[in-house]
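Q: Structure tokens for this one, please.
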Amino acid sequence: MMAPFLTIAEASRLIAAKKLSPVELTEACFARIRALDSTLHAFICLTEERAMADARAAEARAMAGARLGPLDGIPIGHKDIYATAGIPTTAHSKLLEGNVPDADATVVRQWAEAGTVLMGKLATHEFAFGGPSFDLPWPPARNPWNPAHFTAGSSSGTGAAVASGMILGGTGSDTGGSIRGPAALCGLAGIKPTYGLASRVGVQPLAFTLDHTGPLAWTAEDCALLLEAMAGHDPADPASADRPVPELVAGLGGGVKGLRIGVVRHFFETDHPASPGVRAGIAEAERVFASLGATVRDVTLPPMLDFQACGWVILVIEAYAVHEPWMKTRFNDYGELFRDRVALGGLLRAADYVQAVRRRRILCQQVAAAMADVDLLLTAPAPAEAPEIASVPKWVSLEKPSFTIPFNVTGQPAMSVCTGFGAGGLPVSMQLVGRPFEDALVLRAAHAYERATGWREQRPARAA
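A: Here is the predicted structure, written as tokens:
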């Protein structure tokens, strides 16, 4: 019999009170994996022996009153672009089959030191970009709300595993939306922190100046717990910000009274019209925030297409730079989607990249000016409910502009938060965006919204 769904915060309190055994919690999660993962394909590799050892150690600490912190004994998974010492790390690609790193990624080490229980490595789009692909050594992850539908990517396995309760939280990465997309389509909370807040050392790069590491979990509170444990300066990451670790959990209960929230309405009404379900969820979120004492008004940013053109050029050129040696020698070992998308980067000119970098600085200035008299932005993270997985086009990112890449371009903290359910009973979400290094404010507003609504009480029926 599987344990009922628990958030990280709930499980942590029960473990601290000696009312929940980390060993029993871990066993319950493995039971859920055995029941569901043959359909959802969230995991590439299970680490059951390691997990049970982690759980027994956490239980011993709990019984001795010596817990390492709120994550001690919590089952988690790592996206399979995070290096794990002695455990395969494949990036979901034939090119890295059999790759076993000698050292952990910085974030993997940080979470291990916090006492987390490593359940395994999670599916991703190939090298965090090529998906959903059906020509790779492992199948793509599927959406727990309806397995015929897409999880979004590239943190696809993390989205599926958390939504279905196979783990309580996990790592993602976000270069153009790869945390916020799966969070939106799988009905989770997922935050792309400020660029430089969390280390990327030991994480397979996609585009150096756009890559972010961050967590996905069921609630904003859980994301705060996870992000606080992975934030901090890492001298080995040249983009790492040399700042103290922010207090993300302590201020969660501060509410939104007096906050000024700017709705970027033209993104989801004009630039890329969103589905009725997405729009209805955002309209209700506006009402909720206003009822909690926030001031809500419209804000205008540059058109989404400006961010898309700038971000896409930078992304594919930087990705090509990472993969050029293999692209030249092992082109056909990549899946079709990855190789065709990244090959574009080899056809663009140095002048194109320089102009995109120049435009990026202008866009950052324009967003900062638009936020001069608002504290947060609110917009959509995805245009609609999850599509069927077999219908996702190869060039989906070029057909219409992305709601998420604008904030990779600017590097600001941005978070997906579930706002209910739309067509087919599939989740819909909003995106909250803060000024650089105001991650705590984004999480605080998300937490206030979740506490004022009932969406966190609903889980996928197939996972119950």
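A few notes: The chain has a mean pLDDT of 97. The two ends are 11 Å apart (CA to CA).
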